[in-house]
Write a structure and sequence with these properties.
It is a single chain. Helix content is 43%, strand content 20%. The protein is an alpha/beta fold. A hairpin with a 5-residue loop joins strand 8 and strand 9. The chain contains 11 helices and 9 strands. The strands form 2 sheets. The chain has a 7-stranded mixed beta sheet with strand order 5-4-3-6-7-9-8, with helices on both faces. It is elongated, with a radius of gyration of 21 Å. The relative contact order is 0.11. It folds into 2 domains: 3-67; 80-285, Vaccinia Virus protein VP39 (Rossmann fold, 3-Layer(aba) Sandwich), CATH 3.40.50.150. The mean pLDDT is 95. Residues 5-76 form the Release factor glutamine methyltransferase N-terminal domain. InterPro entries: DNA_methylase_N6_adenine_CS, HemK-like, N5-glutamine_MTase, PrmC_N, RF_methyltr_PrmC, SAM-dependent_MTases_sf, Small_mtfrase_dom. Keywords: Methyltransferase, S-adenosyl-L-methionine, Transferase. Residues 118-198 form the Methyltransferase small domain.
Length: 286
């Protein structure tokens, strides 16, 4: 059996189960230590023993994926902006929809630094893997923008992944293992980025999400707005006057988020994600 045939069989299985066929390419490329585009660009020469080993390993991954295990958990990592973040059970997989918050953060960091000529203080509430906090620290350094970055995360399992990713990418990010309500008492910062759990409890979710990723990082309460309300209160307490909040939320929550922010914030603006869906809001503390 050729590599192409192995891949085509997996794609057929995924198509029947309405799983993206790209996942099969990603998993096979991972085993071959290449990128998925190379699977189509060149012939892959393997002897019979290598081919047998590949088929066995690939079948194990395909079986796990068909059972619902997220592709990122099988790989052990997930891409986010310019970096790969280690992921696994106990931590939310970073999504591309969140990447634009980092762009907005960098714009604000550049603006704040130009005004004060000092390091800009950034707090990431509900940091999870550290995708936001680490990306901000990494990219600010590339742009020679001085920052101090603090990542707040309450879940022990997520904190382990967070610390692992900080060490992996060798960035300066301080970890605070705490709920947002009690974190950073008497501390003030220039910028808060928050990606709280915001999905309403009765929302149907794919099996690979609800059966594997932590509910504490997904469900924002009965209506989905309860936990974001706590994050907004924490951000208001932590931010300096004139500081900026960037908060991700469910695509139907923009109006509710704006109402919550209307008491204590101005310059409230709703933004779309990469799929052109209303995904996050920016607001400046009065």
């Amino acid at each position: 059996m050729l590599v192409r045939e192995i891949l085509d069989q997996a794609k057929s299985q995924f198509k029947e189960r309405e799983i993206s066929e790209v996942d099969a390419e990603i998993l096979l490329a991972h085993l071959l230590d290449t990128d998925r585009m190379q699977l189509h660009a060149k012939e892959i020469d393997l002897d019979s023993a290598q081919l047998l080993q590949l088929e066995e390993s690939f079948n194990d991954l395909i079986t796990a994926r068909l059972s619902g295990t997220p592709t990122q958990y099988l790989l052990g990592y997930a891409p986010f902006r310019y970096l790969l973040f280690d992921v696994g059970p106990g931590v939310l997989i970073p999504r591309p929809e969140t990447e634009l918050l980092v762009d907005a953060a960098l714009v604000e960091i550049k603006r704040a630094h130009s005004e004060s000529a000092r390091a800009v203080s950034v707090v990431d509430l509900g940091a999870g893997t550290g995708a936001i906090a680490i990306s901000v620290a990494f990219e600010a350094d590339r742009h020679k923008l001085p920052v101090t970055v603090v990542a707040v995360e309450r879940e022990l399992a997520a904190c382990e992944w967070l610390r692992k990713n900080i060490q992996k990418h060798d960035v300066e990010v301080r970890v605070i293992e705490s709920s947002v309500e009690s974190a950073l008492i008497d501390v003030k910062c220039d910028l808060v980025i928050a990606n709280p759990p915001y999905i309403p409890a009765d929302t149907p979710l794919p099996a690979n999400v609800i059966n594997f990723e932590p509910h504490s990082a997904l469900i924002g309460g009965v209506t989905g707005i309860e936990v974001p309300t706590e994050f907004i209160a924490a951000a208001h307490r932590i931010l300096k006057s004139g500081g900026l909040l960037l908060i991700e939320h469910f695509e139907t929550q923009g109006t509710l988020i704006a109402q919550l922010l209307s008491n204590g914030f101005n310059e409230i603006e709703l933004h779309n994600d990469l799929n052109n869906r209303p995904r996050w809001t920016s607001a400046r503390k009065l």
